[in-house]
Amino acid sequence: MQNDNNNLPLPTGRPWFWSVFIFANIVWIVVLFWWFLDKPVFEITERIPGTDGEPLDASAADVSSSSTIGSIFYASDDPPPPSSVKTSWPHFRGIGVDNISVENIPLRDFADGSSPTVLWAIDLGEGHAAPAVHNGRVYVLDYDEEAEADILRCLSLDTGEEIWRRGYNVKVRRNHGMSRTIPAVTDSAVVTIGPQCHVMAVHAVSGDFLWGIDLVREYGTEVPLWYTGQCPFIDDTVAVIAPAGPQALLIGVHKMTGEVLWETPNRHNWRMSHSSVIPMEFYGRRIYVYVAIGGIVGVAADGEDRGSILFETSDFNNSVVAPSPVPISGDRIFMTAGYGAGSAMFRINYNQGDDKFSITMTDRFGVRDALASEQQTPLYYNNLLCAVLPKDAGAHRDQFVCADALDPTTIRWTSGQDELFGLGPFIIANDKFYILSDDGILTVASISDRRFEKRGSVRISNGVDAWGPMALVEGRLLLRDSRRMFCIDLRYY
Question: Of 62, 174, 231, 475, which sits 20 to 30 A from 348 (CA to CA)?
Answer without folding.
Answer: 231
